[in-house]
Amino acid sequence: MSAARNYRKRVVDAELDELFAALPALALEGPKGVGKTATASRRAATVYALDDPAQRSVAVADPARLLEADPPVLIDEWQYVPECWDLVRRRVDGGAPAGQFLLAGSASPKGLDTHSGAGRIVTLRMRPLSLAERSSEEPTVSLRALLGGERPPVSGGTSWTLEDYVDEILRSGLPGLRDLSGRALRAQLDGYLRRIVDRDFEELGHPLRNPDGLLRWMTAYAAAASSTTTFEKIRDAATGGQGEKPARTATKPYRDILERLWIVDPVPAWAPTRNHIRRLTLPPKHQLADPALAARLLGVDAGGLLGGQDAGPPIPRDGTLLGALFESLVTLSLRVYAQAAEARVFHLRTGSGEHEVDLIAQRDDGRIVAVEVKLAHDIADRDVRHLTWLSAQIGDELLDAVVVTTGKQAYRRADGIAVVPAALLGP
To answer: Nearest 5°: phi and psi at 71?
Structure first.
């Protein structure tokens, strides 16, 4: 069966179709294995794979040659020959028509400001598969509709169980791993993580003196998933029982390069500009690109998660590890849906921790949909208290409020707050 027939349609496909019909150049950014090449190749007449040493050597010798082939031209893993970016930008400045160039990259080259392409090369983030992209079950609640501000009806049922969500946390949203399970899946995830340590850091100009130190730091970061734990506490937790924590001078490059590789994917804090909520805390909420990477770093399996097992180095968290990784899965999905709706995703937490809202989807005009994530079937008044508080603070700026659950039915409570099983939320 051909790769084209095996292709799993992505939410970003609709974004690409709309933008590429009007713009000369688009760039897809995201971690390795996320599906950028498969998605972009469907729109390309010519493909240059610059992770191939032979094709890369030709491109290094004569980068301009890449632009002379039959369009649309896909320059895959363009970061290996960063000159490509400026060549495409200049061609766009020269009046290139719509639908000419696609760039796909799994790292952001050091020293190259891709924002220099602003207005010429439009970038789209591509993340691992959202829940809506993994399931054959049709979502019944649209984030785009919730962002519309009309408080649409909420309904629908799902057969998904808690075990299904645990399976999706562990299975990974990387398309190439979807058909694997058991030891084969674990081996592939281990190989993915080892490649980051053994090859990707060096390719980005930062050879590692202490590879095990990086793995310990990544494990500590995974343990901090869905929290705003300080980086100092993450560094403290990365001792690996050796009594010596990594130096600050070592861990700062860890963070920087993992973000450039799109592996560390923190959720920024919401900083409202049109209301008077005070004492907000601004640290990001920690997330890895895929909750399966976090689970693998922590060495936890389905039995451990369902049994309430904690794992990894000691990191303070509210609730269970399963709750944190379920929030990671919902966060990944919501970010995919929000991007399609031209919205951005944040989190909210007051400085004292008295009030927090897990996720904030914000339109360009500043109005928001607030989302709480609960590892629960049933929702009580105490589960919506932060949403009720936020509504009282910002009034009409709150377009809608949602609790995402592991339950079976989507509905609106008497107070208007939507309760939506994660499997039923979609773009």
So the answer is: -80, 160
